[in-house]
Amino acid sequence: MSQYRVAVVGVGMVGTELVRVLRQRNFPCSKLQILARRARTETIDGNSYEVLPTTAEAFSDIDIALFAGTEGEKGASQLYGWEAVRRGAIVVDNGADFRLEPNVPLVVPEVNADALKSHQGFIANPNCSTIQMVVALAPLHRAAGIKRIVVSTFQAVSGTGSQAVEELKSQIADVPAGRKPKVEAYPHQIFNNVIPQIGGEHKDYPGYTSEEVKMIVETRKIIGDQDIQVSATCVRVPILNAHSESINVELNKKLSLAQVKEILASAPGVKVIDDLRSSKYPLAMIADGRDDVFVGRIRKDPSCENAFDLWCVADNIRKGAALNAVQIAEKMIEMGLIKK
Ligand SMILES: NC(=O)c1ccc[n+]([C@@H]2O[C@H](COP(=O)([O-])OP(=O)(O)OC[C@H]3O[C@@H](n4cnc5c(N)ncnc54)[C@H](OP(=O)(O)O)[C@@H]3O)[C@@H](O)[C@H]2O)c1
Description:
Blueprint (H helix, E strand, L loop, with lengths): L3 E6 L3 H12 L4 E8 L3 E5 L2 E7 L10 E4 L8 H11 L3 E4 L15 H4 L9 E3 L3 H17 L1 E10 L6 H13 L26 E2 L2 E5 H14 L5 E8 L6 E9 L5 H9 L4 E3 L11 H4 L5 E8 L6 E8 L3 H17 L6
Parallel strand pairs: 1-2, 1-5, 2-4, 5-6, 6-7, 8-11, 13-14
Antiparallel strand pairs: 3-4, 8-12, 9-10, 12-15, 14-15
Helix pairs in contact: 1-9, 4-6, 4-9
The site of NADP nicotinamide-adenine-dinucleotide phosphate (NAP) has 30 residues, from α1, α2 and α9.
């Protein structure tokens, strides 16, 4: 089997998990180079890694570059993403900077691996809350077509990055002790709170946040159907890791509840836990550290003819980011799209 020279750019929540996932899945690496803003040594799962500063030259001897730097004009992808492609690397980017570009496939391997065939060296990993939703819903779309989705999310602080995780932990200690908590990651204290805002207001969707609009537009691009109607409410909750979602999906054609359950039970990447009477359903605590998208509370919506409700939980750092990025690279190798 060919071995690839791999770079992981950024070593925060997602970058650290990328290194872990590459190791856990025995990804065929002949070299694994971590790049970030500043040089240092990082220890991940007991192994020590040299971290080098990110430069254009650093990509000259890299086959696959997995980007997990921050977004925006000072972020790694905008500064170095396409330069890495020019120097011969295949880039898989975790950020939102290029997801909607027509020449950038936006891929969840269980859903639209075919989109990789037209890649131009740069592939985008979708938003975490969108990834888990489409893994659960794409099989229903294939069976009966999706007309409309109404989703509310309950998103963990790990989705904001390592600084937000530390802030929740410090608030858990400071607030009960009567100390003034540090409040920087969010507009409000997150401990003992629920914040119905993830991102700022979107300029094209008045009243909707940027995270909510990602769920609308990315879902359509990944599933490949611009007619799917989506409304989202994205909420930050004081959970360390794993996002939960309440999803109402209306289908174009009639399916029975038994058919929906059967489709979900055999869907790739999905694990169904659905026994309300025994209080068994997906929980953030179960999904934390796991690869599957967990689905439960599957029920027929009595208020709408072809609609169903379900509860969907996944590890936002693994399937919502690092694992999906590594699966994209694995799929490209399998499809013969990465040359050695
Ligand atoms: N967390 C999630 O659930 C999630 C899910 C999907 C996608 N994402 C996306 O994944 C990316 C990383 O998120 P995160 O949560 O891991 O962030 P994070 O914990 O804040 O870590 C950011 C990392 O990026 C590095 N970095 C920032 N700017 C850079 C630059 N110009 N050049 C090189 N490295 C740079 C930082 O380097 P230093 O350590 O040297 O400062 C740091 O290691 C973001 O684009 C985010 O939107 C996150």
